[in-house]
Design brief:
This protein is mainly alpha-helical. About 30% of the residues lie in helices and about 5% in strands.
């Protein structure tokens, strides 16, 4: 638990705030594939970060502390902003 606090504090210090999202049973259930053992994407528009964490959780040993830092949203801009050009952001 203390590592989560450290991650949140470091995010606050560098203005990249973070918070805990749940991994609910429905996120795990949505990974069941019809043509594969497991899917790597959510079935709908919502819950993508939690579903991605549920996917990764399948591959992490139970005694290992880990975090999924979801950067899918800010990874690129489809159009230029006043503060950032179009394309990959580097985040």
């Amino acid at each position: 638990m203390w590592r989560i606090v450290l991650l949140q504090e470091s995010g606050t210090e560098c203005y990249e705030r973070c918070w805990r999202l749940p991994i609910l049973p429905e996120h795990t259930a949505s990974l069941k594939g019809s043509q594969s053992d497991s899917r790597s994407t959510s079935r709908g528009r919502y819950g993508g970060a939690s579903t991605a964490a549920a996917f990764l959780q399948q591959f992490v040993y139970k005694d290992v502390d880990w975090a999924h830092i979801d950067i899918a949203g800010p990874s690129h801009y489809s159009s230029a902003k006043s503060y950032f050009p179009k394309g990959a952001t580097g985040f």
